[in-house]
Amino acid sequence: MITVDRPSDHVVVVTIDRPPANAIDRVHQRDLAAALTEAEDDLDVRAVVLTGAGSTFCAGADLREEQSIERDEVGELLGDIGRLLATVRTHRVPVIAAVNGPAHGGGLELALSCDIRIGSTEATFGAAGVNVGLVANVAQLRELIGTARAAHLLTTGLTCRAEQALAWGLLTALHEPDELLPAARRLADRIATRAPLSVEATKSMLRALPDLDRRAATRLQADEFGRLFRTEDHAEALRAFFEKRQGMYHRR
Fold first, then answer.
1. Domains (ranges, CATH) in the chain?
2. What is the mean pLDDT of residues 83-95?
3. What pLDDT is attached to residue 147?
4. How many helices (H) and strands (E) does the chain have?
5. How many whole angstroms separate alpha carbon 98 and alpha carbon 222?
6. Angle of helix 74-89 relative to helix 106-113, nearest 10 degrees?
7. Global confidence as pTM
8. What percent of the chain has pLDDT over 90?
9. Which residues lie below 8 Å from residue 19, measured CB to CB, with a gap of 6+?
10. Rounded CA separation 117/50 (Å)
11. From CA 252, how far away is CA 174, in angstroms rounded?
């Protein structure tokens, strides 16, 4: 099942809980997308943490289910997966992957779709496409860690351990298992105290930049700067700065 917790006013924690490996079938893919969409629609939510129950982040798609799918159903299967990943990538607020254990195949794709990834020392990452006669993870992994490193993982199907993932930039921080979720919540809480319209614009820009040339990127930033300059978010951020206090933001 997919569980949703609200540890603080502006943070939601979404957990994949499908033992033993948190593999997600098509029903759970849709449930996870629905939970993320609900968080997006709640304008009080300013950050989301995505993690797995137990000692696994997500083992990816349920291979037993895939084995039973007819060839003419592949398009529908890819549509469900694509919608889930797009829900993460285009989410209104930053999504933090708290990778508590193995993130393989579709689980790796899910982690790669998040804006920030922090990991447990027990985390592992596997681009398992070649292990099951498929192709996956290519575009996002190459964009994140470069062609040579991506090729190393993608063509061998080997597992990348947490320390290597940190060195390659797949993770931005590493924590002991018991400290991972508290660290993810602290990071989410920090994001939630920043000016929300600015955070949302920054996330949107980061997602758009790979498809823009330098001139278009500069113009987009200037447009967003001008738009945000006229908002109450900006005015309140300045007041809070000079008064040495946290900003008090109202989403609309």
1. 2-192 (3.90.226.10), 196-243 (1.10.12)
2. 96
3. 96
4. 11, 9
5. 33
6. 30
7. 0.92
8. 79
9. 53, 54
10. 10
11. 35
